[in-house]
Every structure is written in structure tokens, then in C-alpha cells.
């Protein structure tokens, strides 16, 4: 794959640099006002090493829906992972990275007929089902598919429960579906389950595997030859005897959650004074940043994530109750409801770590606010590991650790920095300063409002 745009290149950093030093270099350049990500592919490599050490027998099939960045897919393909796809578009993204179709499981139990037809045409044969109609569709469209029966076994605690939508009852429904598959002469090769995304109930895997073992025994009695056990996903990803059964899993957030760091800028501020006994005292600060729930923070609504704001600069003095809001005109666009923070100014930056899972794939440019761009980095060891393993090549990397290298490829798409020098626009904000003694380069007025609920 030829990589021509600097946006798509991976910047190879020296040993003195880190994610936060890159963020600071970009912020302090004065050229960047929009929110942006820094993706450390070395973090993905470390997660893969942890997976292989802790679960050596379980083959990872990365859940593309979690984060479908081409760079993420290419890095994981180079590391030898397989892929869990939910649509023909996701299948095509993985195939375009040079992945063999035998390394893909079409793990959507309810698929449009056109997507099944496409999977059959490109050689993706392994697919999951949990209902009668899906078996009949496969018989008609993809009769040679290798069928994996998905059962339901829900975790008591998870970020995103999935059992209400997918998975048949392992005791009441699964045996009937196996009998139907036998009547239709379909090849059922295994059992899958998904305990829920972001699982915090480890014993649930034991319960689900017990159900799978019982169904394996039943399948053998029915002359099926099961060999595949898919233990699904649900493995958290924040910063932390052998038989002939092939065990796979569908990790998503485990691989990418901590690899992405989001930097956002405060563009507006509203200070609330609601104490009638002390009318001049600030009781709450409302900060408006340039990304929100219609962008990266959709994870709050759809993935039930709790995000943690970290100011880029160190504060001092009294901590003030604060809330953080996105840039759109929708009152729903709230990122953090209530948090204690030192007083921040317009132009200050707030960092959010662990932002790689279920963020960018769902982000939209609602109200005209752009989806943050991603700046990709790696250290020299990661570069040496990946540069000669397809689909990664030398062309994927840019060698050098200079600030200019870091600034290129963000909002200016690899073009000249001079293009930022628009005489009609003063990014410093100096043209609105009235008071030369004012320590802040921004002007804002305080407004009396009611208490924050």
C-alpha cells in the first residue's frame, strides 16, 4: 500500500519523546487550534504482546467496529492477528490490507443478504448465527459457510450489554437451531458468545464455556464436527490441558483503548455566580471545548464510558466545581457533568487518555465541527519491528523528531506551514486585547446565571 499523504505517515520518535511531549510540541507550536489525537502504535504492539503472554492459546480476531483506523488494521495485520467484521465494508477494509479471507470471521448474527453474498464471493466463510431465518438465508446464499452458533450468556457488569439483541438461549433455543442446521445440511463448526463489552464479571466466561461444552457434546452426537470456540470480546483495555478445539476471541477495546490520546482546546468559558451571600464568588466554571458527544465523546452516550479530563498545564490555588461541554448547539452535548479543576483560561488544553475504543468510528461533523485528526507516532524499536512486515513498509514511516515534522500532517494535510499565515486571521488573539496589563490573551465577561443542576 502506497502512503503518499503525511497525515497517514507514522512519525518515528527518539527515546526522549513520549505521547505527552508530542502533544505539548503540537500545542506550543501555535499552529493547532482544532482537537486532535495522538496514536501510539507502540501501545498496540504492547497489548498484543500481553495478549500472547496471558492467553497464548486464544487467537485474537480484532473487532474492527471498535476502531476501524486503516493504521490500526495494518499494524494488527502485520502482527498476525485475525479480524472480526460486521459488514461488507469492514470486510473490504481488512482485505485491502492484504489479509487472507480465512483470517476473517463475519461475526454479525443478523446480516443483510447482500452482505452474505459479498462474503461468499470474497471467500469469507466463517460466520455467526443465532436464529432460524439466518440459517435459511445461509442455505440459500452461502450454503458452504462454516456456521458458528452464538449463544447468550450475559455478564452481570459490563459497559455495553449485548444479550438483549444477540445470542440464543443455550438450553432452550440452541438445540433446536442445531437440529434445523442438520436438516438444512449446513456445516456448524462451533459455538460463540459475547458476555458484553467492557466486562467486569470474569466468572461469566466460565459459565459461558460450560454451556458451550454441553453444546459441543450435543453437536458430536448429531454428527457435526465442531472445532471452534469463540469466547467473544469484552476485555477491558485501559492502562493494565489441551484438546483439539481452536479457541478464538474478538478483542476490540483491549487493543486500542489506551493507544489513542485526545487533546482538546477550551474555546469558551462561562463562570457562574449563584451564591447570593457572596455574589462575586465563582461557584461553577463551564468550559466549552472543540470536541463533544457528537464527535469523539459519543462513547459517553453509546459505550457508557466515563472520561477523565487532565489539564495540560499544572494548576494552582483553589479547585472549582466545573463542567465540560462540547462545541455544538445541543444541550445534550455535555462531556463531563461535574469535576473539581483549577481555574483554566481560554486557549488552555484538556487531555483525555484511553480514547481509542468506540470513538472515531461513530464521530460525526454535526453542526460543522470537524472530526479530530489523528497523528501517528512510534518509537524506534516499533519501527524496526514493523517496517519490513507486510502490509507495513518503509513508506509508512517518517524518520525524525523535529517539531516541524510533528506539525506537518495535522490540519494542513502535509502542505506548507506558510499556508497558515493568513493576514486576515490573528491566531494569537492579540488584536482583541484592550488592557495591556491583562495576563490572559483573551477577553470574556462574567454572566449571572442560575445554579447548575
TrEMBL record:
One of its GO terms (biological process) is putrescine biosynthetic process from arginine, via ornithine. Pfam families: Orn_Arg_deC_N (PF02784), Orn_DAP_Arg_deC (PF00278). GO terms for molecular function: ornithine decarboxylase activity. The active site is at residue 329. Its cofactor is pyridoxal 5'-phosphate. It comes from Cotesia congregata. Keywords: Lyase, Polyamine biosynthesis, Pyridoxal phosphate. The lineage of its organism: Eukaryota, Metazoa, Ecdysozoa, Arthropoda, Hexapoda. Pathway: Amine and polyamine biosynthesis; putrescine biosynthesis via L-ornithine pathway; putrescine from L-ornithine: step 1/1. Catalyzes the first and rate-limiting step of polyamine biosynthesis that converts ornithine into putrescine, which is the precursor for the polyamines, spermidine and spermine. Polyamines are essential for cell proliferation and are implicated in cellular processes, ranging from DNA replication to apoptosis. The modification N6-(pyridoxal phosphate)lysine is found at residue 65. It catalyses: L-ornithine + H(+) = putrescine + CO2. Homodimer. Only the dimer is catalytically active, as the active sites are constructed of residues from both monomers. This is ornithine decarboxylase. Residues 37-356 form the Orn/DAP/Arg decarboxylase 2 C-terminal domain. CDD domains: PLPDE_III_ODC (cd00622).
